[in-house]
C-alpha cells in the first residue's frame, strides 16, 4: 500500500530516478514511450468522436494527477515504516535490468517509427475489414451516416487522406474504391 512507504528517495536515490522515469512514461510525457500510445489513441478518437476524446483526455489528466500524487507520497514523505529504514539502493544486477528498459522507454518515445511501421500491413488490413463491414451495414439499412453516400466510408477516406495506403507495406492489401 502507498501508506506503507514514504521517504524512499532518502534510502534509494537511484531507484527513485528510475521510478520517476517510469512514472512519467506512464503519464505519457512527450519523449517517452507512453506518449506515443496515448497520442495515437487520442488522435484516432478525436477523428472519430470529439466528445469521447474529451472524456478520454479527462481520464489521462486524472491518471497523471494520481501518478504524481502517488510518486510524491512514496518517494518524498517522511519514513514512517521502520522496514523502509533497511532499504538499499539498486545493485549492479538491477542496474543491468533497469538501464536497457529505460533506454527503450526513451528510444520508443523519441523514434517510434521502427515499431509503428511494422504494424502498417496489419492495420491497413484491419481498416479494410472494418470498411467492408461498414459498407455492408449501410447497404443493409439503406441509410447513410453523416451525409455519406452508401458507397463511401469514413475509414477509406481516412486511409487515403493520411496516405496510409501508400508505401511498401501496403502491397498486401487491396485498395477499396
TrEMBL record:
Entry-linked Pfam families: Proton_antipo_M (PF00361)
Domain of life: Bacteria
Membrane-spanning residues: 12-30, 50-69, 95-112
Record carries keyword Membrane: yes
Subcellular location: Endomembrane system; Membrane
Biological process annotations from GO: ATP synthesis coupled electron transport; electron transport coupled proton transport
Name listed for the protein in its UniProt record: NADH dehydrogenase I chainM
Organism of derivation: Candidatus Scalindua japonica
Amino acid at each position: 500500500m502507498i501508506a506503507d512507504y514514504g521517504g524512499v528517495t532518502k534510502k534509494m536515490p537511484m531507484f527513485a530516478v528510475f521510478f520517476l522515469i517510469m512514472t512519467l512514461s506512464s503519464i505519457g510525457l512527450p519523449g517517452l514511450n507512453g506518449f506515443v500510445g496515448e497520442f495515437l489513441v487520442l488522435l484516432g478518437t478525436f477523428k472519430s468522436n470529439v466528445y469521447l476524446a474529451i472524456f478520454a483526455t479527462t481520464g489521462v489528466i486524472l491518471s497523471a494527477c494520481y501518478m504524481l500524487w502517488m510518486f510524491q507520497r512514496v518517494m518524498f514523505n517522511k519514513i514512517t515504516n521502520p522496514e523502509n529504514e533497511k532499504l538499499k539502493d539498486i545493485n549492479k544486477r538491477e542496474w543491468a535490468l533497469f538501464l536497457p528498459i529505460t533506454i527503450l522507454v526513451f528510444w520508443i518515445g523519441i523514434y517510434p517509427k521502427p515499431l509503428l511501421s511494422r504494424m502498417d500491413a496489419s492495420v491497413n488490413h484491419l481498416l479494410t475489414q472494418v470498411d467492408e463491414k461498414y459498407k455492408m451495414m449501410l447497404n443493409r439499412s439503406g441509410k447513410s451516416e453523416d451525409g455519406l453516400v452508401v458507397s463511401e466510408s469514413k475509414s477509406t477516406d481516412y486511409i487515403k487522406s493520411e496516405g496510409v495506403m501508400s508505401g511498401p507495406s501496403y502491397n498486401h492489401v487491396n485498395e477499396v474504391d
